[in-house]
Amino acid sequence: MADRITFRTMAFGLVGFLFLVELTSGILQGYYVPLASKIAGHIGVDTADYNWTEAAQLLVSALVCRCSPSWATCSATSASCSRRRR
Fold first, then answer.
1. Where are the domains of the chain?
2. How high is the pLDDT of residue 65?
3. Are 71 and 85 in contact (CB under 8 A)?
């Protein structure tokens, strides 16, 4: 009986995970984005170069999602991931 995962345990785990995701998202949106351009200016990187760095980061994250062996990490809107995993 102790080995069974109850609905309540799963619900608390899911809520805790979603809380962590929202907290991380808030930190990134509230602190990283405004500070990133100031940091780039402080170290002498042009705004255009900084934008290329951010674009490359987004491209890599999209490729990692698409090529991931786990279908759960893929975007829900990606039809090719769901077709490939069947």
1. 24-64
2. 67
3. yes
Considering Cα of 82, then 85, then 55, then 19, what sign does the dihedral take?
positive
Assigned token pair, 76? 């829900």
- Give the whole-angstrom CA distance, residue 81 versus residue 62: 12
Question: Would you say the C-alpha torsion 79, 84, 85, 86 has a positive or negative sign?
Answer: positive
Query: What gap in Å lies between CA 68 and CA 83, rounded to an integer?
Result: 14
Q: Which residue has the tokens 């077709």?
A: 83
pTM, two decimals, is: 0.43
Amino acid residing at 38: K
b/e 29-67 (16+ beta carbons within 10 angstroms → b)? eeeeeeeeeeebeeeeeeeeebeeeeeeeeeeeeeeeee
Please tell me the total number of residues recorded for the chain in this structure. 86
- Work out the average pLDDT over 40-68: 82
12: its two tokens: 């608390």
